[in-house]
Amino acid sequence: MHASELIKRLSETSRAAALVVVIDIKGSAPRHPGSKMLVFADGSSMGTIGGGFVEASAMGSAFARLASGTSGRIVVEMLGEQAEGNAPICGGTASLAIFIVNDRAAYAAASEQLDKGRRVVLVCSIDGERMGGPVAVVDAEGHVIYGPEVPIDDAALTTALDSGFPAISQADGLLYDAIVPQDRLLILGGGHVGQALARLGAELEFRVCVGDSRQEFVDPGRFPAGTETRLGEFAGIVAAYPFGASTYVVVVSPSHSSDLECVRAILKREYRYAGFIGSRRKTRMILDQAIADGFPSEKVTALRGPIGADIGAETPAEIAVAIFAEIIAVRRDSPAIMAMDKDRVRRRA
Length: 349
Fold this sequence. Notes:
This protein has helices at 3-12, 52-68, 104-115, 154-163, 192-203, 234-240, 256-266, 280-292, 297-301, 316-331, 336-348, and strands at 17-27, 36-40, 45-47, 72-78, 83-84, 87-88, 92-100, 120-125, 132-139, 144-146, 167-168, 175-179, 184-188, 207-212, 228-231, 247-251, 273-276. The chain is of the alpha+beta class. The protein has three domains: 1-8 and 15-102, no CATH class; 104-181, no CATH class; 184-348, Rossmann fold (3-Layer(aba) Sandwich). It has a five-stranded antiparallel beta sheet with strand order 3-2-1-7-4, sandwiched between helices. It has a five-stranded antiparallel beta sheet with strand order 10-9-8-12-11. A five-stranded parallel beta sheet has the order 15-14-13-16-17, with helices on both faces. Helix 6 (234-240) runs parallel beside helix 7. The protein is elongated, with a radius of gyration of 22 Å.
């Protein structure tokens, strides 16, 4: 479960809960800093910090903390000789904070910002008897949107916001825990490729929306549970959709004219990733027409078309994998995207 969804669930429930946060790792560990899990007094949980030995240790400590009503920290050592069955686990240590949830209003304030596609930082105390949190919630502009007007360590805040991972302040010892909004994936076209993209997008923790002008292609029964569908003209769907820095959009519409309609609408919006499927000839026609329409040439040529990594994909499922190879490279700021972009120039020629 994505961290933003976990925060939303936490803000809505009244059940006694402990929030487990990975604040640091050394060596190999199953999950990165910032990974989260909710543990409830009834033994249930949401999210994961990697499973196995680490998660079992966290669960045991969380139950003890829930019983005592106090927050705390633990360090879990993952030694190579420890194993479950015949499978050795990672070698390293994970430092975990276990926060007893008392102030749900703080999480509600954070969730409201996340729903708008904005990053937030939960400022929490991880120091002994004062441990708990959040003592404040800070938005992406550095404004305290919940909690007292506490002094903010700008260096730690900037580090957390830029990286999307927790940062421990050298000035005040507080944990600046960045929560990034869930990435949104807008698929324009609900045909076979759109279906395959929606299935894979759900597995990759995108908030998926499929839009189409044909009613039968936005039947919710064709897509994974939780997929949003929108019926209407493509330009209208794009205009009404909440674009932003966490928005990824893929055009797989049924015709050249609808592809161009989508591209024209997309170029007016802010996004993290946008591309369209098509042959070399169709790609050139769409790009040339967009430039002729007056859109900035640098923004037009930055569109990822033809979309996806050139891996010889043919079936809808293979095409979806090729597209997500590129999306993941952008999502993770992988150096691989430079090679993909260079190869796209060749494919357009």
